[in-house]
């Protein structure tokens, strides 16, 4: 099987799975318990927090564990709304945010908040020049993803941060779920970023665990109340085995990152060059420094995305649709729609996403399969 759906989820790394299994078997204590078994678990949490912080060049006190990206996004957005509602009820998000951001923001409208949408250009990158015109006296939060999950466009986080330097009271959140290990940390954890969200299963860790970066000095309200874990910020017994495994996954993901990214970029370049030779193929992603090395989004004329996905699946090749492709009703909320792509093209879009273990041989086999499929579709449609 060729697995090119790594933006959806990644296979857990063997050594990460080993860490998970050993911790599950050997560490039975609740980290909040006072006895030695609890202390054992608590020490592992501290070590994991320190390891993740070192990888991101932040302090351990700025790392808080969650159940994943969706919780992290909801926590930052709704936690900011609760904490700062007395100062304002206006939030800005980009037009290409993951639904964990856009739907969390939309729910706040029911409670009197207003949401402004920062548009993107034809390449899917946020229009920084329009941000200042959206900022109001009651703006409390700006949320922009680091790397777009559909197109792979790297968002101009540094430039947005420069605009927000003049507005120190506004929280700046980055959904960095697709960014870890794919672009330099300095791209999405700039000095102006206050919060960033991460999810372990996107970088070969276990599902159901993640963390947020929370810049020291900022304040958001907790969403989960109870036992007061995570320094009274996020109650609930910590997933010790998952967190230990995630810490190892972070270290492995950041290890030799430049070399891994170069290898992915070479495969992406081959795929994009090969796909670009077909008249009926539309390339939505780019092979440039403004795009992550692991995501290729393209479409085959007149063939719906889900049809192409299932056709590849029959050849034991796994790719995915983007959010535009399941039905026309979803096009209006997609990255492609925000980019101004016509609906008839948007519904053809599929996404192939690589990881550090992807090979050129797999890419060549992918192209052999694609050539066969496009010939089949051409005969059917002729």
Automatic annotation (TrEMBL):
Family listed: Belongs to the class-V pyridoxal-phosphate-dependent aminotransferase family. NifS/IscS subfamily.
Name of one Pfam family that matches: Aminotran_5
Keywords: Aminotransferase, Iron, Iron-sulfur, Metal-binding, Pyridoxal phosphate, Transferase
Keyword Iron: yes
Keyword Ribonucleoprotein tagged: no
Species in which this protein is naturally found: Vagococcus fessus
GO molecular function, one term: transaminase activity
PROSITE patterns with a match to the protein in the record: AA_TRANSFER_CLASS_5 (PS00595)
Protein name, entry field: Aminotransferase
Domain Aminotransferase class V residues, every copy: 2-366
PANTHER family associated with the record: CYSTEINE DESULFURASE ISCS 2-RELATED, CYSTEINE DESULFURYLASE FAMILY MEMBER
Family annotation (SUPFAM superfamilies): PLP-dependent transferases (SSF53383)
Necessary cofactors: pyridoxal 5'-phosphate
InterPro entries for this protein: Aminotrans_V_dom, Aminotrans_V_PyrdxlP_BS, Cysteine_dSase, PyrdxlP-dep_Trfase, PyrdxlP-dep_Trfase_major, PyrdxlP-dep_Trfase_small
């Amino acid at each position: 099987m060729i697995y090119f759906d790594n933006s959806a989820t990644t296979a857990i790394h063997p050594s990460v799975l080993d860490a998970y299994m050993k911790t599950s078997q050997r560490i039975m204590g609740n980290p909040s318990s006072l006895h030695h078994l609890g202390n054992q678990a608590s020490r592992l949490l501290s070590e994991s927090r320190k390891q993740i912080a070192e990888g991101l060049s932040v302090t351990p006190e700025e790392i808080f564990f969650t159940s994943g990206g969706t919780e992290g996004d909801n926590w930052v957005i709704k936690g900011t709304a609760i904490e700062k509602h007395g100062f304002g009820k206006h939030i800005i998000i980009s037009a290409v945010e993951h639904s964990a951001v856009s739907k969390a923001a939309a729910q706040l409208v029911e409670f009197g908040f207003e949401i402004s949408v920062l548009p993107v250009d034809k390449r899917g990158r946020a229009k920084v020049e329009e941000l200042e015109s959206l900022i109001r006296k009651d703006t409390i939060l700006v949320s922009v993803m680091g790397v777009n999950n559909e197109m792979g466009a790297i968002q101009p986080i540094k430039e947005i941060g420069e605009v927000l330097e003049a507005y120190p009271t506004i929280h700046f959140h980055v959904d960095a779920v697709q960014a870890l290990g794919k672009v330099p940390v300095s791209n999405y954890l700039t000095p102006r970023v206050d919060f960033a969200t991460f999810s372990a299963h996107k970088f070969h860790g276990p599902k159901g665990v993640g963390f947020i970066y929370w810049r020291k000095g900022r304040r958001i309200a907790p969403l989960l109340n109870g036992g007061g874990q995570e320094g009274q910020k996020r109650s609930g017994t910590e997933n010790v085995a998952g967190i230990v495994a995630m810490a190892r996954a972070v270290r492995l993901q950041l290890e030799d990152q430049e070399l891994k990214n170069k290898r992915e970029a070479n495969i992406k370049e081959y795929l994009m060059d090969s796909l670009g030779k077909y008249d009926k193929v539309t390339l939505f992603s780019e092979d440039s420094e403004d795009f992550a090395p692991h995501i290729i989004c393209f479409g085959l004329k007149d063939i719906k995305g889900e049809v192409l996905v299932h056709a590849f699946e029959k050849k034991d090749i796994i790719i995915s649709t983007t959010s535009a492709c399941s039905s026309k009703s979803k096009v209006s909320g997609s990255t492609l729609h925000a980019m101004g792509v016509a609906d008839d093209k948007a519904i053809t879009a599929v996404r192939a996403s690589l990881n550090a273990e992807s090979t050129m041989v797999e890419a060549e086999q992918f192209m052999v399969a694609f050539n066969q499929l496009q010939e089949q579709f051409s005969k059917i449609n002729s």
